[in-house]
Amino acid sequence: MSQSAARHRIVIVGxxxxxxxxxxxxxDSLGRRGKADVTLIDRMRTHVWKPxxxxxxxxxxxxxxxxxxxxxxxxxxxxxxxxxxxxGLDRERREVHVAPYIDDEGQEVTPQRAFGYDTLVIAIGSQxxxxxxxxxxxxxxxxxxxxxxxxxxxxxxxACVRAHSQSAPLRPEQLHVAIIGAGATGVELAAELHRTxxxxxxxxxxxxxxxxxxxxxxxxxAPRVLPALPERLSExxxxxxxxxxxxxxxxxxxxxxxxxxxxxxDGRLLPAGLIVWAAGVKAPDLLKDIAGLETNRINQLxxxxxxQTTRDDDIFAIGDCAACPWPQANGGKGGFVPxxxxxxxxxxxxxxxxxxxxxxxxPLKDYRYRDFGSLVSxxxxxxxxxxxxxxxxxxxxxxxxxxxxxxxxxxxxHELALHGSAKVALDTxxxxxxxxxxxxxxxx
Length: 444
Ligand SMILES: Cc1cc2nc3c(=O)[nH]c(=O)nc-3n(C[C@H](O)[C@H](O)[C@H](O)COP(=O)(O)OP(=O)(O)OC[C@H]3O[C@@H](n4cnc5c(N)ncnc54)[C@H](O)[C@@H]3O)c2cc1C
Description:
With 444 residues, this protein is of the alpha/beta class. It has helices at 3-6, 19-31, 53-58, 70-76, 136-139, 146-165, 184-202, 210-213, 231-244, 341-359, 401-419, 421-437, and strands at residues 8-13, 36-42, 46-47, 68-69, 80-83, 86-90, 95-98, 101-102, 108-110, 113-116, 119-122, 127-128, 141-142, 176-180, 215-219, 247-249, 254-258, 261-264, 269-271, 274-277, 281-282, 301-302, 308-309, 312-317, 322-323, 373-378, 382-389, 394-399. It has 12 helices and 28 strands. The strands form 9 sheets. It has a 6-stranded mixed beta sheet with strand order 5-2-1-11-24-23. The longest helix has 20 residues, at 146-165. Flavin-adenine dinucleotide binds at residues 13-19, 41-44, 47, 50-51, 53-54, 85-86, 123-125, 143, 184-185, 284, 286, 319-321, 339-342, 344.
């Protein structure tokens, strides 16, 4: 048996907020010292931190400055990267099945493959859940991948350029964007779009009157925006959105999405040329009852406090695709850990330590979600949030510069986990310099 074949095989599927941090940490420790073979499988070639997608969509972030190439990351951090989408799992043979990878021209790059594992970590995230609402797949855009965000951005730029150059009067819905779902994604996108569309128009599209022609609306079925967050936060956010001129529809259940607008359950039709579905998430359908593992009604893999799946000690699940109990005894609400970047980050750190304990024959420790609060970035207008924790004894509403710094620190923590402090400091400096010399909004 070769030395490599004898090593413990750790396979991580999904290199998102959770998976790429885990692969990097395990590669830097076990991989570098030859204690285990660490393999990361992702259907994409590059990683972009998902909470940045609304900034790419609105045009306020240049994606290339924030993309991490999986192959390069694997080289520098002592793990293997293999491209392809997981399609199935054989628990008896301990193999993950991966589809062929096909390039943009339809050519097969890698064939269908199977990867053997001793420890498997599934971290394939979540996708939006349209709850079977008619017309969503045909007429609404989603913000699930960088490609979705870029497509949305191209559509909004083209819509403004078209409006500027057409001689006929604008149709009522032509520059109206309807965002369905006023969770963090929906309201962040609304605020960011409000600013970037105005900046775009200011770059010479002077036949468009931003205040009159461009309209952004958010549509929410619940009685308030940010329904999962504390009420004071919702009030502050709704006030700010309304002050900006964003139309806020609450208690508005969507019955159907049509080509030129959104039909509500009460019969109203809200005209919109661009419609974004940002309401609700579920784990990928592929996971539903996969290989006899326990899953819940939104396809998440049910895990124990150790983050191992309930029916297989060799399989862990982390991030949005895991249903991890959040018991009241641990400061939770009795349900499951919410699908957030901070949970993905914490779970990646926890599983890194647990895999090392497993290899050392030690018992695993329980994961405990620490809720540091929630932060919502309203572009350059404001950041609002609440801070949680023992130190302040409950929940504290924060706003403005302090909240902005806390919000930015979440991404910095992710960057630090991937690149270390020296590179992050240099990159931050370089971005600040470039930001001074380039337009603040992407125009293509
Ligand atoms: C627009 C937007 C804004 C957000 N803002 C915030 C925020 O401000 N704060 C916050 O805490 N959270 C936010 N979130 C949620 C946060 O992004 C997620 O909770 C977090 O990314 C989950 O991490 P993950 O690793 O589980 O999944 P992801 O980061 O989604 O990564 C999943 C990875 O799996 C890969 N993958 C998927 N299917 C397969 C397959 N079959 N085979 C191989 N690979 C696969 C994907 O390519 C991806 O790389 C936001 C989400 C969105 C969409």
